[in-house]
Amino acid sequence: MERLRAATEALETPYAVVDAAALRLNAEDLLRRSGGRPIRLASKSVRCREVLRTALSLPGVHGVLAYTLPEALWLAEEVEDVLLGYPTADRTALRRLAADERLASRVTLMVDSAEHLEFTAAAVGPDGPPLRVCLELDASLRLAGGRVHFGARRSPVHTPEAAARLARAVVARPRFRLVGVMAYEGQIAGVGDNRPGVARYAVRAAQYASARELAVRRAAAVAAVRAVAPLEFVNGGGTGSLEVTAAEPAVTELAAGSGLFAPALFDHYTRFTPRPAAYFALSVVRRPSPRHVTVLGGGWTASGPPGADRLPVPVWPRGLSLLPTEGAGEVQTPLTGAAAVGMRIGDRVWFRHPKAGELCEHVDALHLVEEDGTVRAVPTYRGEGHAFL
């Protein structure tokens, strides 16, 4: 931390810092954990083109998993293989894709229903270059006839039979070309299995059961889809499940992104220990009492279910904590702890964001700090004038 603080002390807060050495080590660890399977970068967890470029230059990393179609089209100006991770209802972007042969050859759309196929077909029309399509298979664990649901509510396509039906619907449309299948097991990849407390044992048991069930069902679904059309790829996994997903023969590539920055939510896994690489700094502007300081800003909460784990984590000076009655505020964030006693107006407090990527929505640049203390500012999506969601 001292190296990062010394290198950026002349900057005015708020600013975001990335430890370039930790970033590289995290990338190497992701590749090690992937077991030789290529990794597709999840851009939602990065949101900085320069960081994406750096990671894409590594052997074993190929392609991007984008989160909106306008973003995918923008990235496809320089990336040859962009998979859209979510269905889109953006007619303007669909028409742009459908009218550009180069973009159509680089961007793959995600679909999970016949309804979405009909929407897309109506938006793009019958004429133009073929459009690449990937099917999303639901990866959640469903028990008791669906009354127990463990995982994100994403695709309605859950069974091999449903996947085959949708595959047939895709190939029945001359303009669409089925090229891939994706299934994201967020209940394994995005849920730490080593959080404090006894609940972690229930999480581990549920993840173990989910991984076993999904491996069988995904293999059957991929086989059912391959019987309809040849596939270029089968995408699965995420930062928290690389080893688990890589063990499935049906999966040809893995997705990861959060592991590069290693945000606070990734501190609680038994399978790996990433190195924190991304931080943001705020200035003390009030001392409401001898035991409290208040920084300007800080309400950079993470998406997901509301809870304390979605709030920024103060990491320096050590010993500071948020107030349960106030949390992190948009304009001011009070802090308490032993370190607050000696702090003065203008001192900095460093935080880690709970999730990766979302940090970049609050700053125009990431300040990359090398081991020798040199600093290079690179623009985030926001710094390049883009706010895709």
Notes on the structure:
With 389 residues, the chain is α/β, with parallel strands linked by helices. Helices cover 29% and strands 24% of the residues. The longest helix is centred in the middle third of the chain and has 28 residues, at 199-226. The protein is globular. The protein starts with a helix and ends in a 10-residue tail after the last strand. The model has no long low-confidence stretch (mean pLDDT 95).
Coarse morphology:
globular
Supply Rg. 22 Å
Low-confidence segments, given as residue ranges, are none
What portion of residues is helical?
Answer: 25-40%
Distance between the termini: 32 Å
CATH architectural designation of the largest domain:
Alpha-Beta Barrel
Please, what is the CATH homologous superfamily of the largest domain?
Answer: Alanine racemase
Number of domains: 2
A few lines on this structure:
The protein is built from 12 helices and 19 strands.
Properties at a glance:
389 residues, TIM Barrel, Lyase, Ornithine Decarboxylase, Chain A, domain 1, 2 domains, 8-stranded parallel β-barrel, 12 helices, 19 strands
Helix and strand layout, with pairings?
Elements: H1 2-8, E1 15-19, H2 20-33, E2 39-42, H3 49-56, E3 61-66, H4 69-75, E4 82-84, H5 91-98, H6 101-106, E5 107-111, H7 114-124, E6 131-136, E7 141-143, E8 148-150, H8 160-171, E9 176-183, H9 186-189, H10 199-226, E10 233-236, H11 242-246, E11 253-256, H12 258-261, E12 278-289, E13 292-296, E14 313-316, E15 321-322, E16 332-336, E17 348-352, E18 365-369, E19 375-379
Parallel strand pairs: 1-18, 2-3, 2-11, 3-4, 4-5, 5-6, 6-9, 9-10, 10-11
Antiparallel strand pairs: 1-12, 7-8, 12-13, 12-17, 13-16, 14-17, 15-16, 18-19
Helix pairs in contact: 8-10
